[in-house]
Automatic annotation (TrEMBL):
This is Coproporphyrinogen-III oxidase. Belongs to the anaerobic coproporphyrinogen-III oxidase family. The gene is hemN. It comes from Billgrantia antri. Keywords: 4Fe-4S, Cytoplasm, Iron, Iron-sulfur, Metal-binding, Oxidoreductase, Porphyrin biosynthesis, S-adenosyl-L-methionine. Involved in the heme biosynthesis. Catalyzes the anaerobic oxidative decarboxylation of propionate groups of rings A and B of coproporphyrinogen III to yield the vinyl groups in protoporphyrinogen IX. It holds the Pfam family Radical_SAM. Its main location: cytoplasm. Monomer.
Amino acid sequence: MADPFAWDEALLRRYDTHGPRYSSYPTLYSFSEAFGERDYLAALTRSNTDARPLSLYVHIPFCRKACHYCGCHKIATRNAKLAEPYLSRLDREMVLIKPHLDTRREVAQLHWGGGTPSFLSLDQMSDLIDRLDARFGLSNARDRDYAIEIDPREADVFTLRHLQALGFNRLSLGVVDLDPRVQRAVNRVQPRVLTEALLDEADRLGFHSLNLDLIYGLPLQTRDTFAATLEQVIAMAPARISVFNYAHMPERFAAQRLINTEDLPGPKEKLAILRTTIAMLTGAGYVHIGMDHFARADDSLAIAQREGTLQRNFQGYSSHAQCDLVGLGVSAISSIDDVHVQNHTHLAAYEAALDASHLPTARGIRLTFDDRVRWHAIERLMCDMALDLDELSETFGIDAPRYLANSLSRLEALQRDGLLSFESHRIVATPLGRLLIRHLAMAFDVHLSPTPDERFSRIV
């Protein structure tokens, strides 16, 4: 198996520090509890001036069985009755937001995540869509991006037919790993046939941009076992594949304490798994979009990257640029106008706020001019794997090389190590630098501690 580019294990390990994923800038740890409901409502109102399309994210926190690796905000329960009061409070949140938004704005993007949205019954899914449509007006446009995360263990062909009827046109299926030993080690037993059956039906129904989620760095994984999983996934031919780096943080996530640390692949083996993944997927025709995302060349993510319109938000990479993101549900994050804001992460606090007719705003931040400049620079690096300083200067009316002089000086060591090149007024990540793009972006982050912050995951 040929390497896709020159591989330098020592260099990768040296730069494998803790760092943000930059789904926002400033990152979540810079959000302030002094930012409250009134600040968020003011931002919602201001956003109507530019009348950008809307992106709605709905967080469904429930799942029936907790996977040991999971670091998401979720509630493991088999009590399906918990969904009804939660849906009622979601509707209450929409009611409180609606008066502050011009609902003539198109809802170009919709994403249900969790937990697992497939915890909901089909009737509950219909009810939630009806409520969203009544409050915001959903789109029928052919280029809308309406996605939902599905647990193949909790869905069948009838689920997919129902989702299509509700207007969803993209699916993301959690796979993790197809090796039964790894599945048992992380408490997620999921026979391959479940995934294949859903993929076949989704293809027949005409869903586009099907995504499969994998995770590397899990217990009992080796480069050979993961290669076997990749062979099977490639044969399924999804349009997108996400291969996430498992971040083992048992001090933060209780479920991870059930993982036997001795079974985790060591740093050398984990890098070998990553090397195998990139070689196999690019060899099979997938474009390495960045970080953990791969897509076929004709997929909207790859097209957006070629056209320079790829965007990053709290759901990862997105082909729908320039949307205001409204997050609904416990722990959901919004990015609208010039603010980032997060809802309460504990269900009881979320419920109490809404029961008192208040938005469940827990914390947030309003971006300064400097934040907006740096967020633009970081986002372009993360999406384009390059940064055009002339474009940055024109966009913000600044002399970008002078304005960002301290950040650019931090990149000089990375340039000497072959992670980037300066081409006129463009910073371009090398193939190896693309794997460390989070490290390149960190040079522009003035909120970041100068020492590695272990609240963040490792870069590779």
